[in-house]
Design a protein that fits this description.
Blueprint (H helix, E strand, L loop, with lengths): L1 H4 L2 E6 L4 E8 L5 H15 L4 H4 L15 E7 L2 E15 L2 E13 L7 H16 L3 E6 L4 H9 L4 E11 L10 E12 L12 E3 L6
Parallel strand pairs: 5-6, 7-9
Antiparallel strand pairs: 1-2, 2-3, 3-4, 4-5, 4-9, 6-8, 7-8
Amino acid sequence: MRDSTKQREVESCSTRSHLRWRLCWESELELDEHVELAAFFRKIYGQTGSFNAKSFEGSQSWGGARPELRAVGYDSMGVAAHIGLLRRFIRIGTVDLLVGELGLRGVRPDLEGLWMAHSVRVMYPVLQELKVPFAFGAVRPALQHHVARFSRNALATIMSGIRVRSTLPCARLDKPPTRTEDVVLIVLPIAQPMSEWPAGTIIDRNGPEL
């Protein structure tokens, strides 16, 4: 699977952009590419507050957990969009479940309407090759309208009323070691049907958010 995914490029067209998507494993990225991605995330995440951009100082192109696979969208202006993938076990109730977590999402403001649909569709064939039972991503409830289209085309199931607990990337004496957030969950059945997704409203990542 690694050989077939390495340096794979996918053309993605829309009425507003022509993106060239590059799929690459984390170990394939060069230092200058990390620097370029870090600058992209500082700009994107900094829109919601300077604190959110601090994780991406210098050449650090990840904020919490580090992805193992990335889809990076490019256009004539450089990096335009990004989504990361990390295989991990999460716990729902008493069930440990292998998933492909989709996170570290970002898109330039001029392409805001494209970010979720295009990046997930690019990553979907990779998830099928990896044969993970499910893929999932979490967004703030305020962004629920951005993911509604997935429930319309049956690509994913959207769940509200879910809480996700994560560990903080860095332990600090003035903060608790974990954070629990209300989220809207996006679940994509890959190697198992949606009926096999465990029941429960609290998900424990047992690690930092991607």
